[in-house]
Amino acid sequence: MSHALTLPRMRSFSPVLPVVAVVALLALPVSPDGEGGAGPADALSALVVLYCVIRVLRDRRRPLSRTAAVVLGLPVAGLAVAATGAASAAAGFAGMGRYLQVFVLVPVAVVLLVRGRSDFRLLAWSFVALAVCQGAIGVHQFATGTGASYQGEEIRAVGTFGATDVMGMASVVSFGLVCALGLALGRAPVRHRAVAAGCALALLLPLALSFSRGAWIATAVTCVAQLLLAGPRRALKVGAVLVAVSVVLVGGFGVGSAMLQERIGSITQVADAPDQSVTDRYTMWAAAVGMWRERPLTGVGLKGFPEQRDAHASLALSSGSDTEGAGAAFRRQPLLSPHNMYLLVLAEQGLIGLLALAGSWLALLVCALRGLVRVRGSGPGLDCALVACGLLVWQLTDFFYADIGGPSTVLTALCFGLVAWWALVGGRFREASAPCR
To answer: At CB < 8 A and 24+ separation, what contacts does 197-202 make?
Structure first.
C-alpha cells in the first residue's frame, strides 16, 4: 500500500525535481578565492532550460498563453537594443545571456515545469530548506568567529557564499523566510503551518547576523505586506509574536545586540552621517544617472557601467571594498555596479530597457495580486498567493539596494519563475491543481 501511494506521487513531482536540484546545489560551498561568476547551479539551470525546450518540441503545442508570452518576453526588446550598443560583441553577448537567464529563460522553464500548486509548494519548501541550511552555517560562523570580517571581527554570517558575496546568504535566508511566512499564513494542515511558522521564526536570527541592511528593509516590508494581505487580525497576532521573538533574541540573549543596534541605527543616518559604504553607493548612483543622461533612450550598453564608472563618478568614490574572512584572505574588491537594479538598467539599457523590464515586473505584480484576491475569500491556494506576492515584493524592494550578480542570482531567477507561474497560470483558477497551460 505504501509503495502504491508513493510512486504516483513521485511521478507527479518529476517535472519539477530538476528545479529543486538547482536550489539544492546552492548549498555547496563557493571557492573562497572565486570571482562570483557562474557556478554549478547556473550550469544546471541551463540544462533545465534545455530540458524544457526538448519537452516543448516533443509535445508540439504552444507552451505559453499569449499573455504569458508577452509579459515574460517583454524584457527581450530592451536587451536587444542595449546589446547592440555594448562596447564589444563579447560584452553584449555575455550581458544579454545573463539577463535572459535571470528574467526570461529560467522563469519560463519554471512556469512550464510547475504543473500545479503541489509543485509550487514543493519548490517553496525547498527554498525554506536551503535557507535553514545556510542560516545554520551562518549562525555557527558568528558563534565561532569564522565568518566574514565585520568591524575587525570575523563574525558576519555569510553561509557557504564566502566573504566575496556577503549578500548571498542574506538573500537566501530572506527568500526562505518569506516562503515560510506565506506557507504559515495559508490554509494548509495545522502541522504544516506550525512547521512553516517555526522555520520563519528561526530564520530571523541568521538574517540579523548577516548585518545586511538592504535585506532587513526588504524583508520587513515584505512581511508586513504578507500579513496585511492575509488579513488584519492575523497581522496583529503574528506581528506581536515577531516583536516578542526579536526582543528575546536581541534583548534577552544579547545576540550581537551592540553591533545590531549600531547597524540598525546606521539606516537612519544615510542622509545625515553616511558611512563610506553608503557614500560609495550614492556616488555610484550619481554615476549611473550621469550615464543615462548621456544616452537616455538606449543607455551605454550592456556591461557598460564598469567601463564608464570612472568618467562619471566623483572623487568621493573609494577604490573598493575590503573583504576578508570565511576562509578567504584579505582582498580589495572593486565596485563594478551601482548596487541598484533600477539605476543599473537605466544606465546600461536606458528608458527603453527600464520600461520593458519594469513593465514586465509590474504586470506580474498586478496579475499575482488579482490571483490572491480570487483565493483570499475561500478556496485553496492562499499560501501560494502569499508566497508569490511576497517574493516579488521582496525582490522589487531589494532592487533599490542591490542588483544581480554572484552565485545566488540563479535563485532570483527561480523566484521570478514562481511568481510568473502564480501570476499567469496558478492564480487564474480556483481548483487545487491548476493546469500548466
So the answer is: 199/128, 199/131, 199/132, 201/241, 201/242, 201/245, 202/132, 202/135
Burial class (CB in 10 A: 0-12, 13-18, 19+), 416: buried
Q: Nearest-5° angle of CA 214, CA 218, CA 223?
A: 150
As a whole number of angstroms, the distance between CA 352 and CA 64 comes to 25
At how many degrees (to 10) do helices 382-398 and 213-230 cross?
150
Instruction: Give yes or no for a contact between 163 and 149, defined as CB atoms under 8 angstroms apart.
Output: yes
Task: Of 266, 278, 166, give the one whose Cα is nearest residue 215.
Answer: 166
Give 52-62 pLDDT, tens digit per residue: 999 888 887 77
In angstroms, rounded to a whole number, what is the distance separating the alpha carbons of residues 297 and 258? 47
> How far is 234 from 217, CA to CA, in rounded Å?
21
pLDDT by residue (tens digit) across 180-227? 999 999 888 889 999 999 999 999 999 999 888 889 999 999 999 999
